[in-house]
């Protein structure tokens, strides 16, 4: 599994930087955002270092599918009210102009009562 020794998310996944873990399996690590924009805000991160959505290939389709099917389950477990009255938002920032601050693919999952800090 590839890792970048200078990547903050790789360090979190390796346990070198503490986090509030939500979920972990062989491919994914999920933790609460340290600067949440919403009452519920966590990130789903592949353990393999992928810099952004711009580097995703067809070989990553199953991984992305796992992320997207895990998000609703974890959103409800973390306190998001069920669809349709409740719900959540999924955001993937890509590159500088897309607002990406950490260059390791990560999927933000945000929910909870409105208004939110951002978005």
Characterise the protein shown here.
A five-stranded antiparallel β-sheet has the order 1-2-3-5-4, with helices on one face. The mean pLDDT is 96. The longest helix is centred in the middle third of the chain and has 17 residues, at 61-77. The radius of gyration is 14 Å and the shape is globular. It is built from two helices and five strands. It has helices at residues 8-13, 61-77; strands spanning 21-24, 28-32, 40-46, 88-91, 107-111. Helices cover 19% and strands 21% of the residues. With 119 residues, it is of the alpha+beta class. β2 and β3 form a beta hairpin.
Care to give the gist of this entry?
This protein is α+β, with helices and mostly antiparallel strands. The protein has 2 helices and 5 strands, in the order αβββαββ. Strand 2 and strand 3 (40-46) form a beta hairpin.
Q: Specify the biggest β-sheet.
A: 5 strands, antiparallel
Strand order of the largest sheet: 1-2-3-5-4
Strand content: 15-25%
Number of strands: 5
Mean pLDDT: 96
* Number of helices, counting only DSSP H or I runs of 4 residues or more: 2
How does the helix and strand content classify structurally? alpha+beta
List keywords for this structure.
119 residues
Topology overview:
Layout: H1 8-13, E1 21-24, E2 28-32, E3 40-46, H2 61-77, E4 88-91, E5 107-111
Antiparallel strand pairs: 1-2, 2-3, 3-5, 4-5
């Amino acid at each position: 599994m590839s890792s970048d020794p200078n990547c903050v998310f790789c360090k979190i996944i390796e346990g070198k930087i503490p986090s509030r873990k939500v979920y972990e399996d062989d491919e994914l690590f999920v933790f609460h955002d340290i600067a949440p924009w919403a009452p519920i805000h966590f990130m789903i991160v592949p353990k393999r270092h992928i810099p952004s959505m711009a580097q995703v290939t067809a070989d990553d389709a199953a991984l992305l599918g796992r992320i997207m099917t895990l998000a609703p389950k974890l959103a409800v477990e973390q306190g998001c009210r069920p669809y349709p009255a409740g719900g959540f938002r999924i955001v993937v920032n890509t590159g500088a102009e897309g607002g990406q601050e950490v260059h390791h693919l990560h999927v933000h999952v945000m929910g909870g009562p409105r208004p939110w800090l951002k978005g």
